[in-house]
Amino acid sequence: MSEFVAPRTPAQETSARLSMGFACVGHTYSHLFAPIFFTLVPLALEKQLGLSHGETVALIFVGNALFGFAAPIAGWLGDKWSATGMMAIYYLGTGAGMVMAGLAETAFAMGFWLAVTGLFASIYHPVGIAWLVRESVNTGTVLGINGIFGALGAALGAVMTGWLMYAFGWRAAYVLPGAAVIATGVLFVLCLAKGWIIESKTDRKPPPPPASRADIMRVYIILAVTMSCGGIIYNATNPALPKAFALDFAPGGDGILTVSYLVGLVHVASGLMQVAGGRMADTYSAGRVYLITYILQVPALVLFGLAGGGPLVGIAIVMVCLNTASLPAENILIARYTPFHRRALIYGLKFVVAIGIASLGVVLEGFMFDWTGGFLWLFMVLAGFSAIGVGAILMLPADRAERAAAPAE
User: Fold this and answer.
1) 10-404 belongs to which CATH class?
2) Tens digit of pLDDT for each residue in 15-36?
């Protein structure tokens, strides 16, 4: 028997479409500031700041940590105050932080403004994802489409950095995108003022029956482990990709555009894979899709550590695609076990783990590279984290419980 979904008025339909559009564009923006930085590190900032690779990469640590650790506060405000109000602050604050990072003169100033950017960017994931889940019927597919825009941000961050640096210098790579984010924020505020975007207070799709509190806590603990592992892999891979491609395809600092194109290609592919992951999570068991992506990451990570030259690019695509394909299933599991009125808060807590704590992956990448002079042992360690994730996912509740699961109010 199919679930009844209440029809929306024309004003609600317009609001839903605008909300989806701004949420997707916002996801793109939320993933710009880190890839821009990581692409600039081997191409400009190491030389500009006179620091080693590890020391330069460490400048974004506080920003990455705040991107995760500040998310629960943003989610709580989104639940208690206003999701649309928080999104307006997100656009304006993130854009301003990026502009100031581009104008930084010292390592301290760069680290400070990256931290400010990470603080405001932390608003997007808990508020934006809860917003999408609220408006969606085919949740996995919608989250997968939204994931494309996040991966597009990572890809644009890499490719734009190469072009802007080549044409105008490295500062333009932050200043011009930051100005675009501010302009989008002004447009968003205008839509709110005109009443074109209306904040919905209920889910469009009826929630499933409640799960037991024991199952809820069990799922939360398991997901905390898997999100830590997946987040460390993601955060360590972000700076490793441009550095590995620079070593193989741009020796001596040549080939700026080649490196940015290759990093962009990997992220575009990963975005497309999120749609496939979302569709599979809608069609099959979200838990099973989640498990398969973690199992396959183990050999992919090992192979990346061993590879070089042309094969490195193909393996990188597979490796990053598997990491991001797990995200729609992960977000579905969180939504199924979380009550509506706490959803943005719980998504915020997710990013404390997946980005805040897992920001240690950035430090791990810089330390391992400076210590070993390569990436072999780093990716052996990351494969170990993926294997730990596999073990945790195997302890999720049975599929029949997962399909019906929703938290008691």
Assistant:
1) mainly alpha
2) 778 888 899 999 999 988 888 9
